[in-house]
Amino acid sequence: MTARQALFVGGSWVEPDGGHYEVIDPATEQTVGWAPEASRDQVHAACAAAREAFGPWSATPPQERAAVLARAADIVRDRLVPYAELARAETGATTATARGMQVGVAAARFRRYARVEPAEWAIPPQINEAGPMGRAGVVGALAVRQPVGVVTCVTSYNNPWANPAGKIAPALAMGNTVVVKPAPQDPLSVYRMAQALEAAGVPPGVVNVVSGARTEVGEAAVASPDVDMVSFTGSTAVGQRIAEVCGRGMKRQLMELGGKGAAVVLDDADIGSAVAGIGTTFSFYSGQICTAPTRVLAQRGIYDRLVGQLAAYARRLKVGDPREPDTVVGPVISAAHRDRVESYVELGRKEGAVVVTGGDRPGLPTGFYVTPTLLADCTNDMRVAREEIFGPVVVVIPFEDEEEGVALANDTDYGLIDYVWSADVARAFRLARRLRAGGVGVNTVGRNMEAPFGGFKKSGVGRDVGSYALHSYSEVQSIVWPG
After folding, report:
1. What angle, rounded to 10 degrees, do the helices at 80-91 and 62-78 form?
2. CB of 386 closer than 8 Å to CB of 412
3. How crowded is residue 138: how many other Cβ atoms within 10 Å of its Cβ?
4. If DSSP states are collapsed to H, E and C, what string results for 279-345?
5. What pTM value is reported for the model?
6. Do 418 and 455 touch, CB atoms closer than 8 A?
7. Which of 16, 23, 355, 426 could form a disulfide with 32 if both were Cys (CB 3.0 to 4.6 A apart)?
8. Do 297 and 265 meet the contact criterion of CB atoms below 8 Å apart?
9. Residue 329 and residue 367 in contact, taking contact as beta carbons nearer than 8 Å
10. For 127-172, what is each residue's pLDDT tens digit?
11. Dihedral pair phi/psi, residue 239, rounded to 5°
């Protein structure tokens, strides 16, 4: 009998009022486990537990909070293999991705925020003339980061380790307490993270995890009067609904939402480098990642070569069982999501795009697979070029000169991560500064994990990662005094 998971509320493992629902392996379509369905009352109990724990935890010296995070990092690292096996089964990620980019990154994030950073900084003194506010004098000032309070963390299904860790670790480091609502598709990994934090000595109520397939679980975790802030990663549509609730309650928010990353490939670019970077859309989480360069803008001089090499690259990728060491492309998260991705490919055909490769299902007996797909001869007004598909599908749009390339790149509702490929680095940097996106990769799809991360426009609100996360999970207080 596959184990039935309990909720984690107030430091106790609690049986769910709503029973359990099945978690499915997207590669085998077999049962991975049974996730708990919290009731609205249990979610409110988790929020109340976090509120009660906030006072003592926020008063705990930062060094002691950091020590808990460091121990959690060690525990996650020590259990990397079994944790990664569960993550692979829940998400369909390849073994290498589950170990390196999911569990491995989570351990690194706990380790990163186990580093104590100054919570205050001096502001230059101000000389005040005599007036209605008093005599002439010098006024000193100090800015202090204070915790926000109780933070609800609503996490995404594409990475049930790195994404929650990127919220929980900086929130706890700053003295906040958290209520985590994991994605319904793969919540079991987040409960393993809670077990690791419990073993690391996190006090009762500081971390709570409540899951559910019903929308009322997330709604209760966001709307609870005990919650001061919501940190959400997911679709723009859901983010907009959460923002409305936050607005009514004046709750702080951090939103990392959708993307339709433009990869601007100039005519002097290294085509091989561009193909390898863009090709990660096919392989990395099977395209289920908001930062993917899914919208390729190719200058006319290299358009045909780029399309040809991208198609050849996609055809070489092995699609199959993520447990096999040579598999590059695993399944998407569910049958429903596979249908959604396939419907976009069919829509692209109807809109006039050319399916250069892919557009079908691989001949595998089980699993929710989509063959890496390349749509060429697209225009920027097509829905496949404007809407987030969240699968292994890349669209290619030609452009004539830099001005048109920049205009096309910016003609989108999104603005998370864009990319520029050019042999002339100065040219690439000039163009990057004109792109309306929270981040721009120049000749790379790599990330610097201390650089601020977040989006312009409908790709989100706020910035996190590195020290920027400490700002996001804190309020800034000013203290002034006469010099």
Report:
1. 80
2. yes
3. 11
4. CHHHHHHHHCCCCCCCEEEEEHHHHHHHHHHHHHHHHHCCECCCCCCCCCECCCCCHHHHHHHHHHH
5. 0.95
6. no
7. 23
8. yes
9. no
10. 888 888 778 889 999 999 999 999 999 999 999 999 999 999 999 9
11. -60, -40
- Backbone torsions φ then ψ of 171, nearest 5 degrees: -65, -45
pLDDT, tens digit (0-9, with 9 covering 90-100), for 39-69: 999 999 999 999 999 999 999 999 999 999 9
pLDDT at position 320: 96
Tokens matching residue 252: 């702080």
* Closest listed residue to residue 438, CA positions, set 451, 420, 421: 451
Going by C-alpha positions, the residue among 451, 445, 426 that lies closest to residue 281 is 445
Q: Which residue has the tokens 């004046």?
A: 250
- The tokens of 273 are what? 């480098």
Looking at residue 320, its amino acid is: G
All domains in the chain, ordered by first residue? 7-257+459-482 (3.40.605.10), 262-454 (3.40.309.10)
What are the tokens at 77? 């690292």
Q: Which of 372, 348, 353, 347 is nearest to 361 (CA)?
A: 372
The residue whose two tokens read 């709570």 is: 208
The two structure tokens encoding residue 433: 């500064």
Name 21's bridge partners: 35
Residue matched to tokens 């006039």? 352
Cα–Cα distances in Å, from 368 out to 22, 97, 158, 306, 419? 16, 18, 14, 29, 29
Q: According to the model, what pLDDT value does residue 1 have?
A: 40
Does residue 42 contact residue 15 with C-beta atoms inside 8 Å? Answer: no
Question: How is the chain split among helix, strand and coil, in percent rounded to 5?
Answer: 40, 25, 35
Contact criterion met (CB below 8 Å) for 279 and 310: yes
DSSP string, 55-110: HHHHHS-HHHHHHHHHHHHHHHHHTHHHHHHHHHHHH---HHHIIIIIIHHHHHHH
In which region does residue 387 sit, left (phi positive, over 0), alpha (psi from -120 to 50) or beta (all else)? beta
Residue pLDDT, tens place only, 267-299: 999 999 999 999 999 998 999 999 999 999 999
| Nearest one of 246, 244, 133, 192 to 482, comparing CA atoms | 133
d(CA 444, CA 211): 36
Name residue 456's amino acid: F
**What is the C-alpha to C-alpha distance for residues 395 and 377, in angstroms, rounded to an integer?**
8
Distance CA 309, CA 419 (A): 18
Q: What pLDDT is stored for residue 54 in this prediction? A: 98
Distance, in Å, from the CA atom of 385 to the CA atom of 345, rounded to the nearest integer, reads 11
Residue type, 414: Y
Q: Catalytic residue positions? A: 256, 290
Contacts of 104 (CB under 8 A, 6+ apart): 77, 80
Question: Do residues 297 and 405 lie in contact, with contact meaning Cβ atoms separated by under 8 Å?
Answer: yes
